[in-house]
Amino acid sequence: MPISLQEFNIKTDIELDLRTSKVRVWLLKFLSENNNSAYTLRELTDLCPKENFKAKIDNKEASIGSAMTKLITGGLVKRKGSYYIRTEAVAKEEIRKKRKYTKHKKEE
After folding, report:
1. What is the pTM of this model?
2. CATH number of domain containing 102
3. How many structural domains comprise the chain?
4. Spatial contact of 36 and 59, defined as CB atoms under 8 Å apart
């Protein structure tokens, strides 16, 4: 589907990329809804609905991996070891820890 020149100039790479990738949209939605857990590529591949893939792909894990790489590059997902988590969840946890640390520090 074509977009206007204005939209092309305003949107970021990741926003435009998400318009064309059902897998990436599903991954972001899933990780946002399940932001209290981190998942491996294998787990995400098993959970991703088949209709999100454009064609019959023999290696769906590679497709998910490619999508995750783009989401990491866009700063939307964080990887640690074999696990992936939505960046918002990591940020919220870091803020929570800082608040807890600051509160503990004030009590001393």
Report:
1. 0.63
2. 1.10.10
3. 1
4. no
Residue of 7, 71, 6, 2 whose CA lies nearest to 39: 71
Contacts 24+ apart (CB under 8 A), 41-45: 41/65, 41/68, 41/82, 41/84, 44/68, 44/84
Span 63-99, pLDDT tens digits = 788 889 888 888 889 999 999 988 876 666 666 666 6
- d(CA 10, CA 18) in angstroms, rounded, equals 15
Tokens of 29: 């939605």
d(CA 87, CA 82): 15
Structural domain that includes position 80:
5-107
Tokens coding 101: 């640390």
Q: pLDDT tens digits for 28-54?
A: 888 888 988 999 998 998 888 877 666
CA distance 26 to 23: 5
